[in-house]
């Protein structure tokens, strides 16, 4: 039985603990990607709205209680956030599913659960923000402090709104910062819902501010002179702009950018487990996953067998209404994302690729659906292999030796995630060490936990999210040396 779609009230900006309309009165449509129909509107912020949000965050940091609140109290509030997420799990999952198009059952099991776990994890970690006493070879008492950075501008993408905002908000708040959050223009509903939850949990007014709108407001946020740090997740193209703007102001920035992960199947892989992971790796979230695995590298002795299995199995993956509990693959998040996938599949055909599964839209209820697609026969320099497609598309290449597999895996500009399947433990460690990626999975895909840091190398960005490493990204270290002479 299908889960009922939620009714969404018109969204407003959340500034200084209050809901308000945009200064200029602008509105933006929210479209249900499974039907293509407008289901609500949200406020379209402008420079005046952003200035108000940043001013509220600055006042809350400089004058308000949060940065001076004992870590134990911040921990209690963050733990309460996790509890409220669990209490409102069905509502949050329905909103996230409506906004992004991902299956509601996966939203409930993965996105909502991960968000709750993230706040709970940083609730515990908040109390570890201590400095250290140092021994130095002069008569002095020396120690270090770890202080919050200040006002943090958080810019999040369309594909995992709840998880990726939580992975920034939780450590930023745990460290005592205040924030201005600019969610993706197309998928901002869960960010507005979370503003309510954070307030109910006890986060003071002005500590968290949410401004919705397009690229202009995001650009103004990252260039704002009163913002002390930027955390951005999005495309590599925009990431370069973000890093450049931060560099002009010598402002700390973390950027988690695009990915194009390789998935290597060695000849000694557990075939049943490996194929399941391969399918999960490229269809999860309709392929709109920066750590997805759109490149399958398979030992030449297994190539035809694996392609045959995929040809039989992939068409059976349930694609459809995200509010149907049986659905595994929902629609793309929007029309432009669907058109981008179509463009890359056509490029593959022109480059001599053979589409053995899928390769076309799925006409269903007016939504933005694309059939999971498997492509063989492409050279390694084909654009569909080298570039980030960001859709349910898998390219298959073969290799003969371990060195060749590693060379193919590392051949793109990206380095966010990678994976391999083997029953040889020594090979697993050896190959994992050679893969240029921020996270490597062995014999599965997308095993994630808030305690494990992730982030990119090469064109996939720098800095880390999750784990204690993320908490460090939101602090600054100060040394204090007191003369005893």
Compute the separation of the termini in Å: 77 Å
**Which descriptor suits the 3D outline?**
globular
Approximate helicity band? 25-40%
The main β sheet shows up as: 7 strands, mixed
Radius of gyration, taken over Cα atoms and rounded to an integer in Å: 23 Å
Low-pLDDT windows of residues: none
How much strand content do the residues show?
15-25%
Give the structure's gist in a few sentences.
The chain is of the alpha/beta class and 485 residues long. Helix content is 38%, strand content 21%. The radius of gyration is 23 Å and the shape is globular.
Features:
38% helix, alpha/beta, 15 helices, six-stranded mixed β-sheet, 485 residues
Structure commentary:
The chain is an alpha/beta fold. Helix content is 38%, strand content 21%. It has 15 helices and 22 strands. It has helices at residues 47-62, 71-87, 89-100, 104-125, 161-174, 189-201, 215-223, 236-248, 271-283, 303-313, 335-350, 383-386, 402-409, 425-434, 467-473; strands spanning 13-15, 18-20, 27-32, 37-43, 133-134, 140-148, 151-155, 178-182, 208-210, 229-233, 253-256, 262-265, 295-299, 354-357, 361-362, 369-370, 373-376, 393-399, 417-421, 439-442, 461-462, 475-483. Helix 2 runs antiparallel to helix 4. The radius of gyration is 23 Å and the shape is globular. The chain starts with 12 loop residues before the first strand and ends with a strand. The relative contact order is 0.14.
Protein topology:
Blueprint lengths: L12 E3 L2 E3 L6 E6 L4 E7 L3 H16 L8 H17 L1 H12 L3 H22 L7 E2 L5 E9 L2 E5 L5 H14 L3 E5 L6 H13 L6 E3 L4 H9 L5 E5 L2 H13 L4 E4 L5 E4 L5 H13 L11 E5 L3 H11 L21 H16 L3 E4 L3 E2 L6 E2 L2 E4 L6 H4 L6 E7 L2 H8 L7 E5 L3 H10 L4 E4 L18 E2 L4 H7 L1 E9 L2
Parallel strand pairs: 7-8, 7-10, 8-9, 10-11, 12-13, 12-19, 13-18, 17-18, 19-20
Antiparallel strand pairs: 1-2, 3-4, 5-6, 6-22, 11-21, 14-17, 15-16
Helix pairs in contact: 2-4, 2-6, 3-4, 4-5
Family: Belongs to the aldehyde dehydrogenase family.
Protein name: Aldehyde dehydrogenase family protein
Keywords: Oxidoreductase
């Amino acid at each position: 039985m299908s889960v009922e779609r939620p009714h969404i009230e018109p969204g407003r900006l959340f500034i200084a603990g209050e809901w308000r309309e945009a200064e200029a009165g602008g509105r933006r449509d929210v479209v249900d990607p499974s039907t293509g129909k407008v289901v609500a509107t949200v406020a379209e912020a402008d420079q005046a709205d952003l200035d108000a949000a940043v001013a509220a965050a600055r006042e809350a940091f400089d004058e308000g209680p949060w940065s001076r609140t004992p870590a134990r109290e911040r921990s209690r509030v963050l733990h309460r956030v996790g509890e409220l997420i669990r209490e409102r799990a069905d509502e949050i999952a329905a909103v996230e599913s409506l906004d992004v198009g991902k299956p509601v059952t996966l939203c409930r099991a993965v996105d909502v659960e991960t968000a709750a776990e993230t706040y709970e994890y940083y609730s515990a970690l908040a109390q570890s923000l201590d400095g250290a006493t140092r021994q130095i070879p002069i008569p002095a008492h020396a120690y270090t402090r770890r202080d919050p950075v200040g006002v943090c501008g958080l810019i999040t993408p369309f594909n995992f709104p709840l998880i990726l905002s939580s992975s920034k908000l939780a450590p930023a708040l745990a460290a005592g910062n205040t924030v201005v959050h600019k969610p993706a223009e197309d998928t901002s509903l869960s960010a507005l819902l979370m503003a309510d939850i954070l307030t109910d949990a006890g986060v003071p007014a002005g500590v968290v501010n949410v401004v919705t709108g397009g690229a202009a407001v995001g650009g103004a946020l990252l260039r704002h002179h009163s913002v002390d740090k930027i955390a951005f997740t999005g495309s590599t193209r925009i990431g370069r702009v973000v890093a450049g703007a931060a560099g002009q102001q010598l402002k700390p920035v973390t950027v988690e950018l695009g990915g194009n992960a390789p998935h290597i199947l060695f000849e000694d892989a557990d075939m049943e487990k490996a194929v399941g992971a391969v399918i999960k790796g490229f269809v999860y979230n309709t392929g709109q996953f920066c750590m997805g695995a759109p490149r399958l590298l398979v030992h030449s002795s297994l190539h035809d067998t694996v392609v045959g299995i995929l040809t039989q199995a992939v068409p059976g993956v349930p694609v459809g209404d995200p509010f149907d509990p049986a659905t595994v693959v929902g629609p793309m998040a929007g029309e432009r994302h669907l058109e981008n996938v179509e463009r890359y599949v056509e490029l593959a055909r022109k480059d001599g690729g053979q589409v053995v599964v899928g390769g076309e839209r799925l006409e269903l209820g007016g939504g933005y659906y694309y059939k999971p697609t498997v492509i063989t026969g492409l050279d390694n320099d084909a654009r569909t292999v080298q570039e980030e497609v960001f859709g349910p598309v898998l390219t298959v290449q073969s290799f003969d030796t371990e060195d060749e597999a590693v060379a193919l895996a590392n051949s793109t500009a990206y380095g966010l995630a990678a994976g391999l399947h083997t029953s040889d433990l020594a090979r697993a460690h050896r190959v994992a060490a050679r893969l240029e990626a921020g996270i490597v999975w062995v014999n599965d895909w997308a095993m994630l936990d808030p305690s494990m840091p992730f982030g990119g190398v090469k064109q996939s960005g720098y800095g880390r999210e999750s784990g204690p490493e993320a908490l460090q990204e939101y602090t600054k270290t100060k040394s204090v040396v007191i003369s005893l002479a």
